[in-house]
Amino acid sequence: LPFARGLAFAGLEQNDKARADFDKVLAQGPHAEALEGRAWLWADAGDHERALADFRAAYRADPTQINALVSSSYQLLDLGREGEAMVVADEALKAAPDNYAALVTKAALLNRQGEFAAAAGVYQTAARRYPKVADLQVWLGRVLSADGKTDKALAAFEKAVRLDPKSRDGWWSLADLLGGQGVSKRALEAYDR
Q1: Exposed site from 15, 54, 127, 129, fewest CB < 10 Å?
Q2: How far apart are CA 4 and CA 122, in angstroms?
Q3: How large is the angle between the packed helices 150-163 and 134-146, nearest 10 degrees?
Q4: DSSP per-residue string spanning 84-128
Q5: How far apart are CA 68 and CA 33, in angstroms?
């Protein structure tokens, strides 16, 4: 009951009450979901050290909780520990090579480090595994564009808007690329979507 109530309080943004309920559950022993719930509360409060500790503990309590491991990577980024974040992202991918969050996190970290070709490779892998996710095509297009591969970026953005005709990011990215190439009429049409 305290775990479910903690989730409900968190949903209502009553974080002190949620944390108290998660603490009650954790007083009885390790509980991966309660640790992860409390970690998100710490992260929301800007306490990334405590969030990191709880995400790591959640993964230790239940190694199937790959998203807790991925979330550890983001906490490390927030703490300015980019190298460690990459190691944790690699660990998540090794544990679950098809995990969407692990793939996207690895690609985002590579992109952040300016390793655009490597990021594109990971996004391409993710897109093959999750072929109906328009956002993957948008992110792929952005790293391809940053790497100077505008034709491939254009193809990715066009695929994104085919997959999701309501994708604002897809249309904006397509319009921005077309505008940068001097294709004003098509850019304006994309901006108007």
Answers
A1: 129
A2: 36
A3: 170
A4: HHHHHHHHHHHH-TT-HHHHHHHHHHHHHTT-HHHHHHHHHHHHH
A5: 9
- Residue 56 token pair: 């790591």
Residues 119-130 have pLDDT tens digits of 999 999 999 999
The angle at the Cα of 103, spanning 97 to 105, to the nearest 5 degrees, equals: 135
Return d(Cα 120, Cα 131) in angstroms, integer: 15
Q: Tokens 């990021």: give the residue.
A: 119
Q: Helices (DSSP H) in the chain: which residue ranges?
A: 2-11, 15-27, 32-44, 48-61, 66-78, 82-95, 100-112, 116-129, 134-146, 150-163, 168-180, 184-191
Q: Letter for the amino acid at 3?
A: F
Instruction: Let me know if 104 is exposed, middle or buried by CB neighbors in 10 A (0-12, 13-18, 19+).
Output: buried
How many residues does this entry show for the chain?
193
Tokens 């390790």 belong to: 30
